[in-house]
Amino acid sequence: MSAQGISFKHAVLPPIIRNSEKEFLESIQNYISTETKKVGCDEEGPADEYYIIYRNVFDKVIDYVTAYKSILTSIKKEYDAFIETLKKDQNTAFCRYGKLQVLTAEPMTWAYHRQRITQLEARMTIIENDSSRIQMQIKKMKELRAEYDRKEVKYCTFSKDPSKPIPGMTLEDSVNLEALTKHLKRLEDKYAEIKQTMAVKYVSAHRKEDLDEEKMTLLKQRDAAECLNKELQFRHQRIQIIAYALASWIQSNMSKSFQEVVEQIQKTRELYGDQEFAEELLGDDPSKAKEAEMLLGYIERFNELLGLGEYEKAALFAANSPRRILRNASIMETFKAIGKIRGKPLPLLLFFEALFGTSQAFKRPVDAALTLEGIKCALSERRFDLVIHWVTQQRLTLSEEAGDAIYDYGEQDAFNRTKCITLAQSIYMECGVHNKVLLCLCKLGQIHWAMEYIHQHKDFTSADLLQLIRLCPHIELIQCLTKEWNGKPPSLPLCLVVLHLFSVDLKKVGVKLLQEVNKCGKDEIAHLIISDTLCTLEEWQEMANICVQNGFDKLSSDILSSLQSQAVISEIIEEDNTVNLMEHVFW
Q1: Can you give the pTM of this predicted structure?
Q2: Which of 251, 404, 478, 570 is 20 to 30 A from 428 via CA?
Q3: Cα 429 vs. chain centroid, distance in angstroms?
Q4: Integer CA distances (angstroms), 471 to 244, 468, 495, 496, in order
Q5: In a domain? residue 497
Q6: Helix or strand or coil: residue 57?
Q7: pLDDT over 60 (residue 150)
Q8: Cα angle, residue 34 at apex, residues 28 and 39 outer, rounded to 5°
């Protein structure tokens, strides 16, 4: 084996570090660990303090290594500029995210403000009603006072003291014959004027009855004339249809049969369902005839857009149609029949967006049926933002069914649940559905406002409140309903609520309620039984049995002892109503 074929592997020796460099590296490591512990940051995230510590370390290394100082300084400068840019971009993104959150919450803020306005208007209505009632009482008292004064003057006319001065005359004139004559003449003129005014401005009761009979006769004649007018209008309209059909048939060179032309006009009228359109279409005025031709051309253009698949343009075309000829349920069914198209917005939703967006330009708003269908369509497409916009901008004819649709959507969408309930509450309040307004308040946790609403609208029955407890079984709500509220008696008796909870499979809520009642003393239990005017003794005994079954023996014994004391008092009263309970004191 030759020496040339032998390969030697030379081991690489580690660099020899001087003592001064070792001391420098150790001081740097100690500085990093000490400062990191002081600020309490770790190496998982880019904390600002972590960046400051290593920037100082980098400065020390640059000062120590003088040979590469210029290069390291330029590298550090580039890193600092890059980090500053990142910080600036992060701050800009944070500010824009805050602005986005504010813009997102703006519709709900408007909804809350509108709800608050409605509540304040309700309070103002109550205050105005109270003020009107007080003013009526004051007016009645004034009238009674004036009547009393008139009677007193009437009875005391002949007993008037002649020594008193005459009203409107001085003492000197009251003894002067000439002045008395002038005063008498003035009073006589005033009396004649009042008598003439009464003859002109006031009518006797018999004359009033005659005028009422004459008015009823004229009203009957007016109703008969209106019926005759409607019948004549119908005949005239029918004749106009035939005349227009004949003219169209002649203009078309009689290519179709006359019966087919009439049927086509009738189908067009039934499809677009606007009486004013038919009357304008069949008018005798040449200008109206031109307008009718324009409307027919408008309908043909709409059908052409549908045939070409331009659904967005067709929706805008229908929403801006003259005489509202394409803003009806028939056109809605046309868009609904198209269905969904892959990769494109739902045509029916495009129609409702255009319809509600242009509703303010028309005198009559969109009817309740179309409003409900539009809300359901938007919710089915998960476009709750559109529903918020439509409702807050007051472009709809709201109804209870629309509120139900939004409320049911909130039960399915947990993210928008609070917004849905708030929006449904505003709709229910506008429609006067008090039970569902109360339910929405309780679902939102606004128990205080719910109790105020109950006492403001005093038409809630016990069945309504029990239904509310079944739908929203909150202990706080139940306690407020079964206790006095601002000096007013409880809305529901405790016994009735407990029996209802155990009868509708709300045993857990009933047990929690019994736990709260168990904290009360025996005197409070007795007070509850005495003040209860709805539940019988047998129902309270049933409640005591429920307490025993669920481990509340003390509460059961307190109820039974209070019932026994009430039964003893009732027996004493029933035996003899004349028994004097204080008789033993006098013997």
Answers
A1: 0.48
A2: 478
A3: 5
A4: 61, 5, 19, 16
A5: yes
A6: helix
A7: yes
A8: 125
Within 8 A by CB and 6+ apart from 442, the residues are 450, 468, 472, 474, 477
3-state SS string for 321-362: CHHHCCCCHHHHHHHHHHCCCCCCCCHHHHHHHHHHHCHHHC
- The answer to whether 533 and 577 are in contact (CB under 8 A) is no
pLDDT at 251 (0 to 100): 66
Question: Pick from 293, 249, 299, 294: which is nearest to 273 by CA?
Answer: 299
**Sequence-ordered list of residues with C-beta below 8 angstroms from that of 28, at least 6 positions apart, any chain:** 57, 60, 61
401-458 pLDDT, tens digit each: 888 888 888 888 888 888 888 888 888 888 888 888 888 888 888 888 878 888 777 6
Quote the tokens at residue 342.
């892959």
CA dihedral sign of residues 134, 139, 142, 144: negative
CA distances for 45 relative to 9, 50, 51, angstroms: 44, 9, 10
Which distant-in-sequence residues (6+ apart) come within 8 Å of 492 by Cβ? 462, 465, 466, 481, 482
Domain boundary among 124, 140, 173: 124
Query: Comparing 89 with 258, which gets the higher pLDDT?
Result: 89
Rounded alpha-carbon distances, angstroms, from residue 411 to 386, 427, 431, 474: 18, 17, 21, 17
Instruction: Answer yes or no: is pLDDT of 40 > 80.
Output: no
Distance (Å, rounded) from C-alpha 425 to C-alpha 436? 7
Round the average pLDDT of the chain to a whole number and report it.
Answer: 76
Please count the CA atoms within 13 angstroms of the CA of 220 that sit on its side-chain side.
6
Residues paired with 485 in a beta bridge: 488
Q: Phi then psi for 485, rounded to 5 degrees?
A: -130, 110
The DSSP secondary-structure symbol of 324 reads G
Per-residue pLDDT reduced to its tens digit, 355-379:
888 777 666 778 888 888 888 888 8
- Asked whether residue 551 is assigned to any structural domain, the reply reads yes
**372: nearest Cα among 310, 327, 329, 335:** 329
C-alpha to C-alpha distance for 396 and 390, rounded to whole angstroms: 7
Residue 279 structure tokens: 């009357």
Q: Is residue 502 part of a domain?
A: yes
Closest by alpha carbon to 385, among 355, 360, 361, 349?
349
User: Residues 38, 43, 47, CA angle at the centre, nearest 5°?
Assistant: 70
Q: Which domain holds residue 560?
A: 493-575
SS (H, E, C) 438-484: HHHHHHCCCHHHHHHHHHHCCCCCHHHHHHHHHHCCCHHHHHHHCCC
Amino acid present at 405: A
Percent of the chain with pLDDT over 70: 78
Which residue, among 414, 400, 488, has the nearest Cα to 451 in the 3D structure?
488
- CB–CB of 196/181 below 8 Å? no
Among the listed residues 415, 412, 446, the one whose alpha carbon sits nearest the alpha carbon of residue 429: 446
What is the total count of domains within the chain? Answer: 2
Is residue 43 situated within a structural domain? yes
> How many H-runs (helices) and E-runs (strands) does the chain carry?
25, 0
